[in-house]
Amino acid sequence: MTPSSPRAVTVRVPAKVNVQLAVGAARADGFHDLANVFLAVGLYDEVTAAPADTLTITCEGPDAGQVPLDRTNLAARAAELLAARHGIGEPAVHIHIAKDIPVAGGMAGGSADGAGALLACDALWGTGASREELLEICAELGSDVPFSLVGGAALGTGRGEKLTPLPVGGGFHWVFAVADGGLSTPAVYREFDRLTEGTDVPVPVASPALLDALRAGDAAVLAKALSNDLQPAALSLFPSLAATLEAGTKAGALAALVSGSGPTTAFLATDADAAAAVADALVASGTCRTARIADSPAPGATVIRP
Ligand code: C5P
């Protein structure tokens, strides 16, 4: 650290919803090729990096107890990877995560913390990594991590890490129903493989109708184009999600779908008032633990302090 280095850096990172998740057949490396249309939504984790004697992680928030505080946390791995590339050795940093994104929910909360820690450590250590290098490290950390860095809307191909930014012509109002429990992403992909065994899984492609709806900022058209190939697998492993989807649809949501690998479910609403009504109805239905309202698109990982 140089004398002018900051004492602590805080980065704000958004959650995401997949407005299209087209999944291809399993590849030789076990991953699946995707056409993954990411949209960042305004639910955020805040990741703070501060100098310390050794690498430590703490977490606060309602679900903090479910967050691993060891080196399996993507925030720790991000610090290690950046330090190794820049000859820093053992990263002496304390990473604090103020967690607001549902844990193990299919909203890229862990990926957000990886991208946030990476940006925070880069600023704290003055490593001055290029955007390209940061994106490379993000891709090493996980398939969804590059998108947490860039935010907005993007098409992810390959295993989801190769990003093409997408234009979005207006804001969208969402409600997210947080389930009681989590789903493991690898388990949901394994279930997808089991359910599609013996069938001809098509090559995943982005839907032109969906991209048009995003470009136009038209919620009614977007609602008709939403799709998630992992939804049958998530429902198979977490059957009670069907009741949550039905409760939000009955309450007037334009569309309902499982967010990514789940078990969070996402509901697109006409406007802010409709979103509030859907959230109230979801909570009253007793089919979820809580409901959160968020708008999109949202910016990617951003240094907010100092
Ligand atoms: O890349 P990430 O570590 O987030 O992926 C977690 C797991 O999800 C992988 O180990 C794999 O089982 C599954 N996955 C997949 N295909 C993708 C992305 C993730 O099979 N494109």
Which features characterize this protein?
306 residues; Ribosomal Protein S5, domain 2; globular; binds cytidine-5'-monophosphate; alpha+beta; 8-stranded mixed beta sheet; single chain; Alpha-Beta Plaits
Outline:
With 306 residues, the protein is of the alpha+beta class. The protein has helices at residues 74-85, 109-125, 131-141, 145-150, 185-196, 208-216, 219-225, 231-237, 241-250, 272-285; strands at 9-26, 32-51, 56-60, 93-98, 153-157, 162-165, 172-178, 227-228, 255-258, 265-269, 290-296, 302-305.
Provide a descriptive summary of the structure in words.
There is one protein chain. This protein is of the alpha+beta class. It is 34% helix and 28% strand. Strands 1, 2, 3, 4, 5, 6, 8 and 12 form an 8-stranded mixed sheet that branches. A 4-stranded antiparallel sheet has the order 9-10-7-11, sandwiched between helices. The mean pLDDT is 96. Residues 30-32, 34, 142-144, 159-160, 185-186, 189 line the site of cytidine-5'-monophosphate.
